[in-house]
Amino acid sequence: MFIGLDLGSRNVKIALMEKGRTTRLLEFDTVSFYREYGRKTGGRLTVDFATLGLDVTGAVITATGYGRQAVNVRDARIIPEIKAHVSGAVHLTGLAGFTLLDLGGQDSKVALVRQGRLVDFLTNDKCAASTGRYLENMAAVLNISLEELSLHYLDPVELTSTCAIFGESELIDKIVEGHPVSSLAAGVNYSIFKRIHPMLAKLSSDTVVFTGGVARSGALAEIIRRETGARVVVPEQPEYAGAIGCCVETRGNE
């Protein structure tokens, strides 16, 4: 059995794989996961798999995630995030040539994939303005759910701030101007596209595979399709691409 751990900034994802088939997926809030199932000793993170209800006897464990300190997991092979996400995307879609867009809780990644292998990549982990955290904050300002936010892409208001904090103030100004919620939500989604577009343009393909928790935003996927002309593929359970990629990477080394 192969176990993949993706220790993200907002959520921890775990994938179990046997005989090339994903058999179980689990997701936890990151802070709760470390509080209830993780202990750091000797500079390494020990995960209490028994308390998680997982029998890891004989299992091969591979980990990736946000921040090198956090992913230094005891008894696990550690691989780079981008490698895990590319392998997961190839496995989940069956595609070999595409541009990968992964939008997580606090960072964004774009990778060029050819013949199933990583060719080049760009990341932005210094600004939260194109991430899931940004969407959560903006949905809170609008007093709507993330699900409702993900529905709107037509008639967007223009949001020009490039900073997540100032973006909230700008959105409040637009609310005061009386714009409908649908246009405000569309503006938030379009502002994410504007921030990731330079990376997508540099590593462009006819097909964009969209992963990470933000990939559940149908509005953002539609904006990318309309603005770039690319086919946008969102695999089932896109937030697990990193964890599944960890399993695939280890399986491939056997």
Automatic annotation (TrEMBL):
GO terms for MF: iron-sulfur cluster binding; metal ion binding
Cofactor(s) the record lists: [4Fe-4S] cluster
Cited Pfam families: BcrAD_BadFG
InterPro entries in the record: ATPase_BadF, ATPase_NBD, CoA_E_activase_dom, Dehydratase_Activator_Redct
Top-level taxon: Bacteria
Keywords per UniProt: Iron, Iron-sulfur, Metal-binding
Signal peptide: none
Domain ATPase BadF/BadG/BcrA/BcrD type stretches: 3-245
PANTHER family xref list: ACTIVATOR OF 2-HYDROXYACYL-COA DEHYDRATASE, BIFUNCTIONAL PROTEIN [INCLUDES 2-HYDROXYACYL-COA DEHYDRATASE (N-TER) AND ITS ACTIVATOR DOMAIN (C_TERM)-RELATED
Protein name: Acyl-CoA dehydratase activase
Originating organism: Pelotomaculum isophthalicicum JI
